[in-house]
Amino acid sequence: MKFFIDTANLEEIKQANLRGWVDGVTTNPSLIAKENRPFHDIIREICKEIPGPVSAEVISLQHEEMVREGKELAKIASNVVVKIPMCEDGMIAVKKLTAEGIKTNVTLVFSPLQALLAAKAGATMVSPFVGRLDDIGSDGMAMVSQVIQIYDQYDFATEVLVASVRGPMHLQFAAEMGADIATIPFKVMQQMTSHPLTDKGIKQFMDDWNKGQKK
Ligand code: E4P
């Protein structure tokens, strides 16, 4: 299973990468806006730091513009993946960019049928948003399970990238279901490392060691 980090903050990316947790990066317009720096500079710097896929999202909603923006983004580095929102124009853009050898990530996917259409259009990755579905009283992980079942049934090459991850249990379920990728905020990665019994065990080993050394 690949781990992407869901941030546009270079320091967080470096910290997570030091720990061996970063196979790729996802950004979106909201994450980019938090950084207060030019979009292309941010993506260029992330791509230098991480050799894996780095998703950069188009902001147009019209397919010719999406394709133009996508081509500009793809010129920044060979590991850029163009993120396209799920909509009819988006699917046209995915088909065109795919035909030109440019990788795509279809974002804002909230149903198995949207994921099926993204795969038909030739998307490299599809991003089902689990947290935002949970927020409206739906079951985000159940939707991921349906997407995986459909893709397996028809051997689609599109990778399932679990997005809008809010806590460690989203990751555990995604891993059990065999999702290809999850994109994770750094805070959630850190939450996944800790367990009270680990902390207790470390303290006990240290206390015993120190007592033994005094003999
Ligand atoms: C990643 O590709 C998405 O943009 C991101 O996971 C959205 O997460 P959010 O629902 O917490 O904003």
Automatic annotation (TrEMBL):
Enzyme class of the recorded protein, top EC level: transferase
Keywords carried by this UniProt record: Cytoplasm, Pentose shunt, Schiff base, Transferase
Broad class of where this protein is predominantly found: cytoplasm
Keyword Transferase: yes
Documented EC number(s): 2.2.1.2
Active-site residues, record numbering mapped to chain: K83 (schiff-base intermediate with substrate)
Gene3D superfamilies named in the record: Aldolase class I
Pathway: Carbohydrate degradation; pentose phosphate pathway; D-glyceraldehyde 3-phosphate and beta-D-fructose 6-phosphate from D-ribose 5-phosphate and D-xylulose 5-phosphate (non-oxidative stage): step 2/3
Cell location: Cytoplasm
SUPFAM superfamilies linked to this entry: Aldolase
InterPro entries: Aldolase_TIM (IPR013785), TAL/FSA (IPR001585), Transaldolase_3B (IPR022999), Transaldolase_3B/F6P_aldolase (IPR004731), Transaldolase_AS (IPR018225), TSA/FSA_arc/bac (IPR033919)
Reaction(s) catalysed (UniProt annotation): D-sedoheptulose 7-phosphate + D-glyceraldehyde 3-phosphate = D-erythrose 4-phosphate + beta-D-fructose 6-phosphate
Function of the protein: Transaldolase is important for the balance of metabolites in the pentose-phosphate pathway.
Family, per entry: Belongs to the transaldolase family. Type 3B subfamily.
Protein name as annotated: Probable transaldolase
